Automatic annotation (TrEMBL):
InterPro entries to which the protein is assigned, alphabetical: Beta-lactam_resp_regulator, Peptidase_M48
GO biological process, one term: proteolysis
Residues of the Peptidase M48 domain: 142-199
CDD domains cross-referenced by the UniProt entry: M56_BlaR1_MecR1_like
Membrane-traversing stretches: 30-55, 67-84, 90-111, 282-303
The entry's keywords: Hydrolase, Membrane, Metal-binding, Metalloprotease, Protease, Transmembrane, Transmembrane helix, Zinc
Gene3D superfamilies: Metalloproteases ('zincins'), catalytic domain
Known cofactor(s): Zn(2+)
The keyword Repressor is assigned to this record: no
GO MF annotations in UniProt: metal ion binding; metalloendopeptidase activity
Name listed for the protein in its UniProt record: Unannotated protein
Amino acid sequence: MIILLALLVVAAVLLPHVVPLRRVAPATAATLWGVALGLRALTSVFVALYLVLFLPATALFDAMTHWCWHTIIPIATTHLGVAGHRVGDAVAIFPIFLLAASAISLTFGLVRAARSVRRLITRDAVGRGPADSVIVGGPDVFVAAAGFSNPRLVVSAGALTQLDDEELAAGIDHEHGHIRRRHRFVVLYAEACRALARFIPGTKHAVSQLRFHLERDADAWALARQHDRFALASAICKATISQNPAVAPLGGGRDVRDRVDELLSGHRTPGALRRSALNTTAALGVVLLLGLTASVPSVIAAGQQQANGAPVPHACDG
């Protein structure tokens, strides 16, 4: 059962890496990448729990740590005070420290980002703009949704002067899409998963792809408001040259070319069978992710019970 579950997790993690999702519905693609990220994070958590709670109770761990320096080096008559089980305990607990350090790093990063956004809106604001936005100075072109608990629309002076009316309206609705679709919570989830799974190969790419499909979703939101796709593509191209790290700009960072190509060529949806298969896979992936997340307390309880019944480490008394 455990082997089958592990195979399902590996398949769900690898699926978005091997199946082309660039022209799949943005919500479906984002869900698949989000599931893969969540499973990566859970893998890190389960590995840490195993090393801390389960491994010390195994015979293998006892055999690997049942040594003392004064028995390995008989000539050393002085007790050095370094026992194998102490080293084993340190090795077992080390993953927890890594996860805690990653969580602390994420928290400080969020605090710095919040301060940058607050500084952008309060210090750099020069007035009120269209759609109840905040105008900030500077020649760069960017339209952004800034903030987390109460996001505000931010428009640069450069955007007001370099974008025509239709481009500006399309860009504003793109950012409204980020706000209305609550993409900020998805980004927070992705960054939390990145913090927990930073040592698993491919995690950074998965976060990048999830952000890419969130941008596609916001593009679709803007087009659903009857905006011209060419105007939105033009606004994206103009905004690409401005990448303000404090906000999520209209340009969206990397993968801009793919977004523009999709806008210019029109959205080509996959066949009904493939679309149904991907939607079903995404739904099953969410169920798998939620089920594994719900099992974490039970795993901790089982690990504590096994740890309480583990043999007491030997004393290095020579």
